[in-house]
Write a structure and sequence with these properties.
Layout (H helix, E strand, L loop, with lengths): L3 E5 L3 H12 L3 E5 L11 E4 L2 E4 L8 H10 L4 H4 L2 E3 L4 E5 L2 E5 L3 H11 L3 H21 L10 H5 L2 H8 L5 H8 L3 H14 L12 H9 L2 E3 L4 H14 L2 E3 L4 E7 L2 E7 L2 E4 L2 E4 L3 H8 L9 H6 L5 E9 L9 E5 L3 H9 L10 E4 L14 E9 L9 H17 L7 E7 L1 H8 L31 E3 L10 H26 L1
Parallel strand pairs: 1-2, 1-13, 2-9, 6-15, 13-19
Antiparallel strand pairs: 3-4, 5-8, 6-7, 10-11, 11-12, 14-17, 14-18, 15-16, 16-17
Helix pairs in contact: 1-11, 1-17, 4-5, 5-10
Bound molecules: flavin-adenine dinucleotide.
Flavin-adenine dinucleotide binds next to helix 1, strand 14 and helix 17.
Length: 496
Amino acid sequence: MSEHIAVIGAGFAGIAAATSLAQMGHEVTVFEKHDGPGGRARKFHHEGFTFDMGPSWYWMPDVFENYFERFGSSVKEEYNLVRLDPSYRVYFEDGPLDIPASYSEMKTLFETIEKGSGEKLDIFMDEAEVKYNIGMSKFVHMPSHSAFEFAELQTAKDALKLHLLRSFSSYARKYFSDPKLLQLLEFPVLFLGAKPEKTPALYSLMNYADTKLGTWYPMGGMHEIVTAMQRVAEKQGVKFEFNSTVEGVELSNKEITHLKVNGALRSCDAVIAGADYHHVEQHILPPEARTYSEKYWDKRTMSPSSLLFYLAVDKEIPELQHHNLFFDADFGKHAVEIYDTNEWPDKPLFYACCPSKTDKSVAPEGKENLFLLIPVAPGMKEEEGTREHYFNLIMERLEKHVGMNVRKHVTFRRSYAHKEFIEDYGAYKGNAYGLANTLDQTAFLKPKMKSKKVSNLFFAGQLTTPGPGVPPSLISGQVAAKEVNKLIGKRVLVSS
Ligand SMILES: Cc1cc2nc3c(=O)[nH]c(=O)nc-3n(C[C@H](O)[C@H](O)[C@H](O)COP(=O)(O)OP(=O)(O)OC[C@H]3O[C@@H](n4cnc5c(N)ncnc54)[C@H](O)[C@@H]3O)c2cc1C
């Protein structure tokens, strides 16, 4: 039986949900408030430069491959994916360190930094691979309605291998003691969600993704993934309506019958909300239809927000790689400022992405496209001059390391932080990547994919299962689509 499903938001999760449902035979319309798809992965142009606005690290290539194959295509047919080598550069106080794409070179690098660590890296990576495989083959595809799902799958045994109850920090220290090695292993969890002390050791699977599966880049920019997903969605019959803001719902018998879109009522049989969970519940649904209260949200640990700068530079910067992490500051102190004391950081770590190193299409000849990211606590208020202060603070450090005055070559600068995340996505406290990956916010402890109050409403995206990041959001949309399809199957049974 074909039903009309409405999807709110054309981010990765919304498009993945819509495409899956269209493939199952349903009529699907995606309502997106912006003038194009991508959500946090939108792009913009400025005088020959193309800036990706959000994600820049392409990890877990298997997830993208599986996605496109599911719809009769492949990554190769959709965009030109290249592996970066070195994967990235890290600037420590005493200079740069390139992280090689080759695992054997990575082992040698570890060994030169800490004697005996090469062999330990093998054990660490073997365990991380087990976690990745269990996680990706089972857990991420579960809707996580309740803890029982986990009990059903011979999971007690698997759960032990996942190291859910051990902290990432103590787990990494079991193998390594050099501060540089620890920072290399801890940065993915720190940037994407929480202090390593609060993050389960499960997330060493990110190190497997980084080190073994590699860092990739789609030529043309990360937005190429979005364009490809839109193409594939439209082939399945999905209709996109851009510049279409969902403002409210009409309910009957605890079901949504209509969405209010740009002031007009649009009928639907079920809804997948790919927009931010808190925004949908608190600003689109009436109070009686909300599963969670403001108090609930206030108690969540949000992932960091980011202070971002997009720069056009009219000169090449030879000393930068594509991805550059500036770890020339106190790692622990910045983590405390983000996650514990919630204050503007004193001397933050930051990240500089220079995609023009790999891709000549994103900047005019002889120029660089530069994207700077400082992770900051969610919910921060800015004062006049805050952005200017941080711009100069990090540019001074960047210039010192790359040995040139970059600021005098900046011909365009745009910044983006909490205020813009709230205006553009209704992001709770201006979060950039949803909820932190803490143990008490993992799997069935996250905001639920299925609304408890509205029987035909489901959520997808980085604030529900499996979590933040492009690959999890892609998976989330597909899992939510299956849940909607199950609901429709049940309706057919009841009516027949
Ligand atoms: C700066 C930054 C850097 C990142 N870096 C990486 C990275 O390197 N690698 C990685 O894997 N992940 C990264 N991430 C995380 C990743 O981008 C996100 O997890 C992912 O894009 C979230 O997708 P989503 O579909 O859940 O949500 P979104 O992309 O936020 O999509 C939600 C959509 O809903 C729309 N919407 C909102 N409200 C309404 C409404 N009322 N009506 C209609 N539409 C509405 C929004 O406009 C948006 O298009 C980064 C994120 C940011 C912000």
